[in-house]
Amino acid sequence: MGNTEAASTIFFIVEQKQSMEIELLETMKQIVQNTEPTSSTQIVISENSTKIVTTFNPPIELNKNKSDEMALVNLETYYSFQNIHDENNVFRYSPGFVEVRNNEGDSSQQRQWIEIHNLEGSYALIDIEETIKNEMKGKGHIDEN
Known about the structure:
Blueprint: H1 3-35, E1 90-101, E2 107-117, H2 125-138
Antiparallel strand pairs: 1-2
């Protein structure tokens, strides 16, 4: 390799390195810009129904020169949605078989079914479980422990 070729190669490498450094510097500037703290506003809305509607008076005015964003950060429902209703409020179980006699005096074993009706409303799973256990204990179908 001659001196001219070596000088060209070195110049190319130096130029490529400078280009990469400039690109890296631009990327770092963009990262700094994207991670700088921005102004923020919290809006708290409370409602007792499943439809949440609010009006801001005065209205929220956004700066046309900025790229504003809005996000839902937290939603707390506190069992506000009814999970027990008229279509799913019956728990049916079988504690075993009972002897049944027909009119002729013949007997047979038939599975006994017990139904527990829950009140309609909004419940945590542990509350539903406790209601079922208490009903079953009251009927003598599970231990008191």
